[in-house]
Design a protein that fits this description.
Blueprint (H helix, E strand, L loop, with lengths): L2 H12 L4 H18 L8 H13 L4 H18 L24 H10 L3 H13 L3 H5 L6 E2 L4 E4 L8 E4 L2 H14 L18 H14 L8 H6 L30
Antiparallel strand pairs: 1-2, 2-3
Length: 257
């Protein structure tokens, strides 16, 4: 794609799309070009439809088709400034699967099985707040406002900040995590380096491993925990991290040592 690729990459960055979305959209555009071996500037709605139909006939999932539609919509509407080419391209219907985690006992068992402690707390935060894993891994200790009972998400989807409720049980768990781990640097859940974020795939693998150890054969994902945020199946005592007495301070994590 040459210069067109560079322009699309710049357009995505200027609109502050996430790194993951940028990579996906650019990959879709490249696949489109390879399919026809022509520049997108020389093609239009007919080729887009033919491309999507070809993948549908090959058995591509609805979510994959949806990703192609999103990437090509951006390519033509924004980068090529030809929105008419994609305005009639329909979004495929994507079936919403029911979450795998659906009982308090199962959640308690999974959380107890997830190791190490840092990974368990990431999952508990997703379960207690409904935050995406990328949002959780970007959290800093200053983002936990215990007095107001809020979490400040500075880097949400589309890089938009927002405030989300902080359940009391999750706050207690975070305080105990802070007491035991004392993470260095600003990040609440740092990676191997204090200023580097934890890799999301390592957390996902820990969840899958815990489910396998418990003999749970259904697919359990981080989205499963997000789906039940603030639901009645939230574990009654998810913060039993080391059988230690909990910190009762209400002045934030750093003051709860």
């Amino acid at each position: 794609m040459g210069q067109l690729y560079e322009k699309m990459a710049s357009d995505l960055k200027l609109r502050r799309y996430s790194a993951r979305t940028q990579k996906s959209y650019l990959w879709c555009a490249q696949r489109f070009v390879r399919h026809f071996m022509r520049s997108p500037a020389e093609m239009g709605s007919k080729e887009i439809r033919d491309f999507l139909l070809a993948h549908h006939e090959r058995g591509a999932s609805a979510s994959t088709i949806k990703m192609y539609v999103a990437g090509l919509r951006f390519l033509y509407a924004v980068t090529l400034e030809r929105p008419a080419e994609v305005q009639n391209i329909p979004w495929p219907r994507v079936a919403q699967n029911l979450p795998a985690v659906n009982s308090r006992d199962e959640v308690d068992a999974l959380l107890a099985k997830i190791e190490p402690l840092k990974y368990r707390m990431v999952v508990m935060t997703a379960y207690g707040t409904g935050l995406r894993i990328a949002e959780i891994l970007a959290l800093e200790t200053r983002d936990i406002d215990s007095k107001a009972g809020l979490i400040h998400v500075r880097h949400g989807k589309g890089d938009r900040p927002r405030l989300v409720p902080l359940p009391k049980r999750l706050l207690a768990a975070l305080r105990e995590y802070w007491r035991l781990e004392r993470p260095r640097g600003q990040l609440l859940f740092p990676g191997q380096e204090p200023d580097k974020q934890l890799c999301p795939d390592t957390v996902r693998r820990a969840v899958h491993f815990a489910a396998a150890e418990l003999g749970i054969h259904r697919r359990v994902t981080m989205h499963s925990f997000r789906h039940y945020a603030e639901s009645p199946v939230m574990p009654s005592e998810p913060f039993d991290l080391a059988r230690s007495s909990l910190i009762s301070s209400a002045d934030g994590l750093a003051d709860s040592a």
